[in-house]
Amino acid sequence: MEYKDYYKTLGVSRNASQDEIRKAFRELARQHHPDANKGNKQAEEKFKELNEAYQVLSDADKRQKYDQFGANWEQFSRTGGRPEDFDWGQWSAGPGTYTRVNLDDLQDLFGGGPGGAGGFSDFFETLFGGVRGGAPRRQAMRGQNIEQSLEITLDEAYHGTTRMFQGQNGARFEVTIPKGVRTGSKVRVSGKGGAGAGGASGDLYLKIKVLPHLHFKREKNNLRIDVDIDLFTAVLGGEISVPTMGKPVILTVKPGTQNGSTFRLRGKGMPSLGKKEGPGDILVTLNVRLPDKLNQEEKRLFEQLRDLQEK
């Protein structure tokens, strides 16, 4: 639903007085009145917009509600929210509600009736109710959005996965969880939220929680892992196998590698959920494992090595 800026329509400031609002309306209404613009559809539509804006801003109660709504709407818009995700229900005047319309300012412009003053927008009718004659018209209300938590494993976050759900009508449906989601990510499933009252259903939002992994620790798109190596590989160098979320990779260890050294496997981390980021890396920290039991010959050789180092 489109937000209507009634102050902009009348060309007045938000703190305009009632006299300023009335004056602005009369000048613009005289300019765009259908009786002065025979056959001009654009003028007719503009006149309807002016009338709608005046019906709100000239009424103290309606203006107060509109201003409160506007502040809430601006705050929602600044966070990047979309109109279809806004909770219109809390501002709705409700089905079967009517509003009194004062047409005196229209009737004295040309000495006749309102001349096409009807045709109020969905925005107006949602906030203030219907103005049409006859039986009350039930407004179509969009269903509420629903948020639901969903736990997945790190492997599922890496590869992507699917889940089956049951809708409020009992029908089952499958949801695809994309690669790269993090704890706190939300997956939107359109039309699978609360049922609407004559309007569209709301949306289902799955709030993701990625469970801890046995070996990897996630830092955004990077993964950290500790890998044990023996003393001889650390001293003499060699190759070790490092697990990834896919196939293991071979890491070359240089001679004299110190305990706690960290190596980066570029592009082997988590895939990017959006296009702005690339895939993450795996950060491998080496833990040098010392022998805890030495036989007499091993002890003698270590002592000999120590003596050589001391010379």
How does this structure look, described?
31% of the residues lie in helices and 21% in strands. It is of the alpha+beta class and 311 residues long. The chain has 3 domains: 6-128, Helix Hairpins (Orthogonal Bundle), CATH 1.10.287.110; 146-210, Urease metallochaperone UreE, N-terminal domain (HSP40/DNAj peptide-binding domain), CATH 2.60.260.20; 217-310, Urease metallochaperone UreE, N-terminal domain (HSP40/DNAj peptide-binding domain, Sandwich). The strands form 4 sheets. It has a 4-stranded mixed sheet with strand order 6-7-11-10. It has a 3-stranded mixed sheet with strand order 1-5-4. Strands 2-3 form a two-stranded antiparallel ribbon. The protein starts with 5 loop residues before the first helix and ends with a helix.
Core attributes:
311 residues; alpha+beta; 21% strand; Helix Hairpins; 4-stranded mixed sheet; HSP40/DNAj peptide-binding domain; 3 domains
For the sheet with most strands, the description reads:
4 strands, mixed
Number of helical regions = 9
CATH H-level name of the largest domain... which superfamily?
DnaJ domain
Terminal residue distance: 85 Å
How many domains? The number is 3
Radius of gyration: 34 Å
Would you give the CATH topology of the largest domain?
Answer: Helix Hairpins
Helicity range of the residues?
25-40%
What's the count of strands?
11
Spatial order of the strands in the main sheet? 6-7-11-10
Strand content: 15-25%
Structural class: alpha+beta
Q: Which spans of ≥5 residues are poorly predicted at pLDDT below 50?
A: 95-105, 110-117, 131-138
The level 1 CATH classification of the largest domain is: Mainly Alpha
